[in-house]
Every structure is written in C-alpha cells, then in structure tokens.
From TrEMBL:
Phylogenetic lineage: Bacteria, Bacillati, Actinomycetota, Actinomycetes, Pseudonocardiales
Residues annotated to bind DNA: 40-59
Pfam families listed in its UniProt record: TetR_C_11 (PF16859), TetR_N (PF00440)
Protein's organism: Actinophytocola oryzae
Keyword Cytoplasm: no
A GO term for molecular function: DNA-binding transcription factor activity
Domain called HTH tetR-type: residue spans: 17-77
Protein's UniProt name: TetR family transcriptional regulator
Keywords: DNA-binding, Transcription, Transcription regulation
Amino acid sequence: MPTKTTSDAVKRRRRGTELEHALLTAAWDELAEAGFARLTMESVADRARTGVAVLYRRWPNKDELVFAAIRHYGDTHPIVIPDTGSLREDMIELLANINAGRIELATLVGATFAGLHDSAGLTPEDVRNIVRGDGPRRSDVVFRRAHDRGEIDLTRIPQDVLELPFQLVRHDVLMTLRPVTAERIRSIVDDVFWPLVTGPYARP
C-alpha cells in the first residue's frame, strides 16, 4: 500500500478565523524581525505560507496590515485588570501588568511610528487611537470601581490627572526600551498620582 509523503499530501486549507490569526501572527513576527521599512505584503505572505492575494483581500495596503497585526497582538495578549478593593493597590498592579505585558508592543510601535508617519502622515496620537480602538480603556474600569466605592470623585478629577501614571510609564519605556522597575511604578503612584487624586481633587 503506497504511503503519502509531505510533498504529495493534500494540505489542509486554513479558513476564517484560523487563517486570519495565522496571517496577523506572521505580520507581527515579520514586523518584529524585519522592521516596518523592510516589511512587505510579499514577505508576510511568504512567512504565512500563502499567496499575497490572500492578504490584499483583507487589507488594502501595508499600513492597514500593520495596524491590524498590532491590534491582534494586543487582543491576544490581554492585560489583567486588578480588583483589590483599593485604588492605590489596583493602580500599582495595573501599571505592573501593563509594564510586563506591553513592553514588546510599546517598543515595537515606537519603532514603527516613523515609518507610519512617512507612509501615511499619521501623528503619534493617530497611531495610538487606531491601535487602541473605540473600546473602553482598562483604567476606566479601575477608576469607575474606585468612584463607586467612594475613594475618588470622577466628576472632580481632570482626565489629564487620570492619564498621568500611564503616560509616565509609557515615556519611561520608550526612552529606555526596558521595563519600568517596581520601585519606579510605586513612586509614580505614591508620589505623583495619589497626592493629586486625594488632595486638590478629593471629594469635598
């Protein structure tokens, strides 16, 4: 009885969600390895072992494919939202989770931005909004719980104050290309964020 070899065996076709996952994973790996400038639709197709037409049926150009790959990485590597019952502890844990789970994403997006700016004229805020999408931010859940517990009054605290801890962590990561230390995270919460939300913007 003849045996099938790898060359003459019929390959199972990937379809739907499985195919899209494979394509976006290949795009992310290519972006991480080759960089935005050297990434092409053809190189991603080769890595995914498919035809380039398969990519173009889903994403009209390289920019859209890269955005989709970045969003897909974020969706498949979710950040755990803590619920300790304390805003201070939630913030320390959330920043630590983001720091541990988003260092690769942050550094790669930072390195990719120059190419996206040259290609599509996008600003850093444009890129962040496209990558983040329209869904609620993880911090919104933490702040709403703290408000409901009576720890803070969201009607009194400016959005800039709420975003400050995350901006500082993002800045440190992009400047050093390394994870932020636990000591730095505690300092951001205890020395910068906490005095603001419990001081001038505290409940009357």
